[in-house]
Specification:
This protein has 1 helix and 8 strands. By secondary structure, the chain is mostly beta strands. Strand 2 and strand 3 form a beta hairpin.
Length: about 120
């Protein structure tokens, strides 16, 4: 009986260690992140505003909102700015945060690719 309880406790501890990550503090996400394979920059602001833009400030950009649910970063694009003006869109991206340090973030899109991002300075 004691052996069964000990095994149950051990299995519960292993499940928690493997499946329960520390919660992510939103403040660690705030800032500008550059996708490593592209020149695209994602900016996450404290008011939950989200911008996705190319290296050229005058180029196309997506504006919207972001939120954190556990280890999931969810961005909701609402307006796409292009050279001819603004277009209303509704594009949701749901990504699992696989790694997060002060300078690096790795996102795995649900049903899609994995992206590595590097924190960059917002001053230009």
């Amino acid at each position: 009986m004691k052996k069964g309880i000990a095994v149950s406790v051990l299995l519960s501890a292993l499940v928690c260690i493997c499946g329960c990550g520390k919660p992510i503090d939103e403040s660690r996400l705030i800032g500008a992140w550059q996708f490593n394979a592209q020149r695209t920059i994602m900016v996450l602001e404290t008011n939950h505003a989200y911008t996705l833009k190319g290296e050229n400030d005058n180029g196309p950009a997506t504006l919207g909102e972001w939120r954190l649910q556990g280890h999931r970063l969810i961005t909701i694009g609402q307006i796409a700015k292009v050279s001819s003006g603004s277009i209303r869109i509704h594009q949701t991206n749901d990504s699992r945060i696989k790694e997060l340090t002060e300078s690096r973030m790795v996102l795995k899109n649900w049903g899609g690719p994995t992206y590595a991002l590097t924190r960059v300075s917002t001053s230009r």
